[in-house]
Design a protein that fits this description.
5 helices, four-stranded mixed β-sheet, single chain, alpha/beta, Zincin-like, 231 residues
Amino acid sequence: MINIFDDGKHTFQYRITRNRGQKNIYLRIKSGIAVVSADKRISQNFIENFLQDKASWVVKHITNAAKQPKLTCPDATVHIFGKAYAVLIDIDKNRKKSTFKIIDKKAYFLLNNTPDEESLKKLLNDYYKKLSLKHIAPIVDECSSKTNLYPQKVTYRSMKSRWGSCSPSDNISLNTALAMLPRELIEYVIIHELSHIKHKNHSKNFWSLVERYIPKYKQHRKELRKYEIFL
């Protein structure tokens, strides 16, 4: 069921999914709607207070999602390692499964059904993950050797609001969408997260360590923002 949140400053639609035994509350934006996932025992009042705390974040991401270029648009493009590829959609109902491929410098969604934005994004994210495991994992190894900073574990997953993260136990998670970036920006993100192994904050010492390996990190941060709309 779709609900309306309105605190006088922020208004948006939301819905709640209940999962027995879920330890934490999760929030994501899907098709312009805030989706809250919580344990069945969590009260409606608690969830509304949770949304109150996150209201600014929700409105910001719903607004950004509305601005995001649609893969179903006639002039859509996708980015892979810094290069833009025109999107072409080919539908064949006899096709066993839908896939995404780069063919003759064009991005093909080879489908067996009528496309929708969510299904196209999933195919693209699956492709990005394959690229991440094949091409980005070796860059992580190179950067670790360069900095002498080694994570306990590296995982790759689709994320909507960040390029990477480093846990207190030095586990690094990287956004599969890194595969859309040019090499220098990928290296910046990796060095950024590796630096958190030594400094768990964004202190002066942290940025000095990043700058040691990425002298143009400030420029890279600005360039990175241009790609955030595609997350």
